Amino acid sequence: MKPLLAKDLAAFMLRFNNFKDGEFRSLEVISPTTMKITLAGQDEARAFDWISLELEFNGVNDAKLLESSKLHLVDMNDGINIIYDKNFAFALGEYNTLSSITNSICYIVCTDIKYQEGKF
Questions:
Q1: Phi-psi region of 56 (alpha: psi -120 to 50; beta: other; left: phi over 0)
Q2: What is the pLDDT of residues 69-113, one digit of tens each?
Q3: How far apart are CA 58 and CA 1, in angstroms?
Q4: Where are the domains of the chain?
Q5: What is the DSSP letter of 79?
Q6: Phi-psi region of 32 (alpha: psi -120 to 50; beta: other; left: phi over 0)
Q7: Measured over all CA atoms, what is the biggest interatomic distance in the chain, rounded to whole angstroms?
Q8: What is the DSSP track for 45-69?
Q9: I need a surface site. Which of 20, 29, 32, 83 has the fewest CB within 10 A?
Q10: DSSP 8-class letter at 44
């Protein structure tokens, strides 16, 4: 897995168009402070071909999660957002501040994020 650095965050989100109209495939709680999600989306770096992407969140200090049985019901029209403000914050939907992310139906606040690209 590769670390996702704060300085690369904007380019990373642009590359995958915030996973708009993507697919939320899985959510796994590895430990109370480590979680992993799998998303599918279009990759601008691969001529907008579809890929899957695993995101691993480490140092989780706040989260609101969905049940695995409800993931296929998630509307990904607005995609996801990941912001950095002393901590990384992931959320479903368009949120731009750490305080607004807590309004999302699913969010994770953590100290670092790693990612791994996979086949669709």
A1: beta
A2: 888 888 899 999 999 999 999 999 999 898 899 999 999 999 999
A3: 12
A4: 2-119
A5: -
A6: alpha
A7: 37
A8: GGTTEEEEEEEEEES--EEE---GG
A9: 32
A10: G
